[in-house]
Amino acid sequence: MSETAQHATSETTVIDTDVHITVEEETVAEYMDEPYRSSITESPHPIFPSSSWDQRMGGKIDDHFSTFTSPDDLLAFQKEFDIEYPIINTFEPLGKFSQPDLAVNLMQAYNDLLFDRFLDDHDFLGLASIATQKPHKAAEELDRVGDEDQIVGVYVGTSGEYPPLGDPEYDVIFQAAEDNDLPMVYHGNGDEFLFDFPMHNKGFNNYFEVQTLGHPWQQMATMSSLIGEGVPEKFPDLDFIFLEAGIGWVPYMMHRMNKIYHMRRSEVPLLEKSPEEYIRDSFYFGSQPLGEPNNPADMKRIVETIGADNLMFATDYPHWDFDHVEELDKYLRNYFTEDERKKVLYETPVKAFNLPL
Amino acid sequence: MGEHVIATQDELSNGDRKLVEVEGREIAVFHVNGEYHAYTNWCAHQAGPVCEGKLTGTSDADFDRDSLTVELDWCKEGEVLNCPWHGWEYDVTDGTCLSKEKVQLPSHSIKVENGEVILTL
Ligand code: FES
């Protein structure tokens, strides 16, 4: 990180809805039970699945990720980026693990580690990870950790999860999240594209194509499944947060689902209002990675369409496609009122995550 | 405005750079094939520390419509400055951005006199 970043948010309280802490495999293994711990430490090859894409293009992009491991790193980041409240998660999407029991044990280990290394001695806010392979176990985990004040949401990777994430199989998870006043937080991934779209992952020739599609495809699939299965109607107090696919896909999905709903209402009889209304009532979106239109006015229209009540700021630090605060704030300052800007940077996430601030 | 000695010629072998602070601004001088180029350490994308990034080469491609082949060329080795934050590429010899027209690193004039590298600000 450098001292050269120039930004104007120092007088505004900023909540960053997506900050990843990096957990090395050996570190999380310390929190696991046998035989799973040995699966991590004694396996002759890395057991954490990953694609073979060269995401950092032979070093053209720096790796901030593997060194971002301790509370001190987080404190330095907060200072450098003027972030008052980072909402942290332990990143690794658990849906990609082939062994359900291992995934469940990892889930518990990630949450124990989050408390032990980050939350117990600091006033950070964090998300509880869940493995969706065994929905009842995930629900039990939410009951175990969900009433801690510093846990402010349920963290779900959207890659590798099967069936799609609105399936009734997950109703126990939604129920536990709602009972614990926690929003569901869905996080898209690029590297894990391989698990959702293996044929495409093999077929594309460069990561440009994969990164363009990975996050939004996963998030679109998740949103479509949630609405199509009537989840917001079944759990009216539950909120849904989407991270890491930017925001341009949101107007498209709202309008498209409205259209299809009007054509096929009898297929989704749980729904009592249009998809757009559910989205405006209980769905929230992290801004990163914000698209980069050649004409800034195009972004103004997208932000306006989503609105300050549903939009939140996110850096995604320390991932290599993170956004600096200024990236969104330049639009907020130029095109929106101070009240709208405050909503996006602070008030909307307070509401979405029910933050104890 | 003024002249500042920011390095000696001996300090900077070909491919080297030096990051200095002058009048409150972070500026880097690069030595590339006998020429010196100075830029503010400020990326046009999201204000990242561009001058701390790697100097590499980049790929160029030509498509031959008749044979339907693409010829790839790894070129400009040592002349492409990559911003370490998100990888934006700049030609270090003139500060131009390789992926966006009219985007340019803020540059400063440099001269060498008596073995000293002098920046004018
Ligand atoms: S800040 Fe330089 S590439 Fe993003």
UniProtKB/TrEMBL annotation, chain A:
Matching InterPro entries: ACMSD, Amidohydro-rel, Metal_Hydrolase
Highest taxon listed in the record's lineage: Archaea
KW Magnesium (keyword) present: no
Pfam families: Amidohydro_2
GO cellular component terms, A-Z: cytoplasm
SUPFAM superfamilies attached to this UniProt entry: Metallo-dependent hydrolases
MF terms (GO), sorted A to Z: carboxy-lyase activity; hydrolase activity
Keyword Signal included in the entry's annotation: no
UniProt keyword terms in alphabetical order: Lyase, Plasmid
GO biological process: secondary metabolic process
Domain Amidohydrolase-related: 110-355
Matching PANTHER family: 2-AMINO-3-CARBOXYLMUCONATE-6-SEMIALDEHYDE DECARBOXYLASE, ISO-OROTATE DECARBOXYLASE (EUROFUNG)
Protein name: Amidohydrolase 2
The organism of origin for this protein: Haloterrigena turkmenica (strain ATCC 51198 / DSM 5511 / JCM 9101 / NCIMB 13204 / VKM B-1734 / 4k)
Lineage of origin: Archaea, Methanobacteriati, Methanobacteriota, Stenosarchaea group, Halobacteria
Automatic annotation (TrEMBL), chain B:
Gene Ontology MF annotations: 2 iron, 2 sulfur cluster binding; metal ion binding
Rieske domain sequence ranges: 4-119
Keywords attached to this entry: 2Fe-2S, Iron, Iron-sulfur, Metal-binding, Plasmid
PANTHER family found in the cross-reference section: 3-PHENYLPROPIONATE_CINNAMIC ACID DIOXYGENASE FERREDOXIN SUBUNIT, FERREDOXIN-RELATED
Keyword Metal-binding: yes
Domain of life: Archaea
Entry-linked CDD domains: Rieske
Name assigned to this protein: Rieske (2Fe-2S) iron-sulphur domain protein
Tagged with keyword Cytoplasm: no
Stored InterPro entries: Rieske_2Fe-2S, Rieske_2Fe-2S_sf
Pfam family, one: Rieske
Organism: Haloterrigena turkmenica (strain ATCC 51198 / DSM 5511 / JCM 9101 / NCIMB 13204 / VKM B-1734 / 4k) (Halococcus turkmenicus)
